[in-house]
Amino acid sequence: METLRLSISDLLKYNTEEYLQDKVLSKFKSRGNTDIEIFLHNKATFFEKSSISTTHLIFNNDNLLLGYFTVSNKSLILSNERVDKLSNSRRKKLMQSGQILENGHLAVNSYLIGQLGKNYNLAKEEQIKGKDLLSFGFNLLLEVKKIMTARYVWLECENSEKLINFYRTFGFEKVDDFISEDGFVVMIMKLDEK
Q1: Distance of CA 73 to CAs 38, 49, 122, 152, Å?
Q2: Spatial CA neighbour of 8 closest among 38, 47, 34
């Protein structure tokens, strides 16, 4: 399947925000996780314009929105209590890519895949596979790494075995039993060619 990746900024160069919302983003529907849908419909454009994150939309040849992912340059911050709970080898690896802050927390220089969602508003045979969508984000970050170095990519996901296994199959690992303040599992992966 031929695809095209465009950021929201790319689309805003040639379209109004209203057109983007009404004709493109509103066509996206998630399955079950309304946070993914709400983010794209209500927050993605603001985050893009505010330089908080960049949302990339994936289209097929018929200009149907297949899915999206959002990335940002955001360090993974681990509290000193969390760092103490890491295995010695994990702590050593992460400290090579980070620094200890004044408050004792570890800031790991990394990229964040903040959102990932496929469009369930399409026929089953038109839908993109989750692995392919994640590959788009991962491969883009490999390109970014050539310009702005970071060794890791991380994400947060619901504490669901299905989701954890999906990311684990791709190569992400849970950061021990780290659950974010929002109740999400934190997973990390070294940013190397797959």
Answers
A1: 22, 15, 31, 11
A2: 47
C-alpha of 108 from chain center: 16
Tell me which DSSP letter residue 56 carries: E
Q: Report the length, in residues, of the chain.
A: 194
pLDDT by residue (tens digit) across 97-136?
A: 888 888 888 899 999 999 999 999 999 999 999 999 999 9
C-alpha to C-alpha distance for 13 and 175, rounded to whole angstroms: 39
Which of 123, 127, 134, 121 is closest to 56 using CA atoms? 134
* 66 vs 147: CA distance, rounded Å: 28
Query: Global pTM?
Result: 0.91
Distance of CA 174 to the CA centre of its chain: 15
DSSP per-residue codes, 71-138? EE--PEEE-HHHHHHS-HHHHHHHHTTEEE-TTS-EEE-EEEEEEEEE-TTS-GGGPPPHHHHHHHHH
- Sheet containing 54-60: order of strands: 3-7, 54-60, 65-72, 110-118, 152-157, 185-190, 173-179
40 in Cβ contact with 117 (< 8 Å): yes
